[in-house]
From TrEMBL:
Native source species: Hydrogenophaga electricum
Domain of life: Bacteria
Pfam families on file: Redoxin (PF08534)
Keyword presence, Lipid metabolism: no
Similarity section: Belongs to the peroxiredoxin family. Prx5 subfamily.
UniProt protein name: Glutathione-dependent peroxiredoxin
Keywords of the record: Antioxidant, Oxidoreductase, Peroxidase, Redox-active center
SUPFAM superfamilies found in the cross-reference section: Thioredoxin-like (SSF52833)
Presence of the UniProt keyword RNA-binding in the record: no
Amino acid sequence: MIQVGDKIPAMTLMEFSEVEGNGCSIGPNPVDTAQASAGKTIALFAVPGAFTPTCSAKHVPGYVERYDELKAAAVDEIWCLSVNDVFVMGAWARDQKTGSKVRMLADGSAAFAQATGLTLDLTARGLGLRSNRYSMLVKDGVVRTLNVEGPGQFEVSDADTLLAQAKEA
C-alpha cells in the first residue's frame, strides 16, 4: 500500500472537459499524474463510485464547500478519483456542480487504485474492483498525509480532515 513519503503512481487518468482551453479539447482528455502534480499541492480524494450515496451526499460536496479554505491553505488543486469511465465522471461533475473547483478524474480500469494498493473488491455486489475511500495531501507528487477509511466508513477522508492537515503542512 502507498505510504506517506511515496510518490503517487505516474500514469494517465482521464478528465472530461466541458469547455475548450488550456490545451484541452471538449470531451475526454488525458491527465498525466506526474506532470499534473509537479510543483503543486494537491488535495486528492478517492471514492468507490460516482453517484453512490455517501460519495454524492457528503464526500464531493464537502470538498466543493471547502474549496476557498483549501486554496487559502496553499492547496493548488483538488482531485476526485473514481473507478468509473470519463463520461460518467463528466456527468457526475455536472450533477455535483464541481465547476473548476474539483477535477473529477476517471480511473476507468482501476490502474491507479491497484498501483496504490488501495482497492476495494465489490465483485459480490456487481461493482467489480473499485477504489477504497481515502484522501491524501500530495506535494510535488509525494504523499504528505494519507487517510484511509475502514470498510463502510466516512470518518477521516473528508474535506475538514484534509483541510486541517493542509493548514499544518
